[in-house]
Amino acid sequence: GAVVSQHPSWVICKSGTSVKIECRSLDFQATTMFWYRQFPKQSLMLMATSNEGSKATYEQGVEKDKFLINHASLTLSTLTVTSAHPEDSSFYICSARISGRLPEYNEQFFGPGTRLTVL
Amino acid sequence: GQNIDQPTEMTATEGAIVQINCTYQTSGFNGLFWYQQHAGEAPTFLSYNVLDGLEEKGRFSSFLSRSKGYSYLLLKELQMKDSASYLCAVTDSNYQLIWGAGTKLIIKP
Predict the structure, then answer these.
(1) Between chain A and chain B, how many beta carbons pairs sit less than 8 Å apart?
(2) Per-residue model confidence as pLDDT tens digits over A21-55
(3) How many CA atoms lie within 13 A of A98 on its CB side?
(4) Among the partner residues A43, A46, A109, nearest to B87 by beta-carbon distance
């Protein structure tokens, strides 16, 4: 149980285009999902916290107009990288918390990640 | 500020034991997680500690001392497949998960 999927697993796009990444919890409901970015040989960097039915909370330094997050249902959150540039090339990973769990038990279940390459 | 410290890299021999330390200074504490991450893959859950002491799970054990702001992950009978990064993460008083930079573990035959 507690499986999270991401689609696509990798994408190559031209500079200036937009890319949408989907994150789905397959066998549980997730009120809260998280989006991370990871550059090579670096640790996870939290970009934003996505809450179902409300606006995402972005970490300092992350442009909310560039990284659009939509969490329309309890099983789906999407991240859209708008007007992508080569510096946006990275490994994007989503994770989800099981709804109803105690907040202090903050276990996150991770999707397999999406590797974005912007030419 | 909030800070989690882990060694950047460690090397160990197949079949041996290795201990990866993690120290933290966070605004409050609501539990500590260890995750394993293989290169190019997403992290996977290893352990969770919220009370002091040792939690054992097969070849992996995790220890916590809240008074010292310290945890370690102990890996026994190392296998080549254990070569990965190990991430320490702490839930703070706002229930935010604060991540360490990770420890890259290299296993040599």
Answers:
(1) 48
(2) 999 999 988 888 999 999 887 888 999 999 888 88
(3) 12
(4) A43
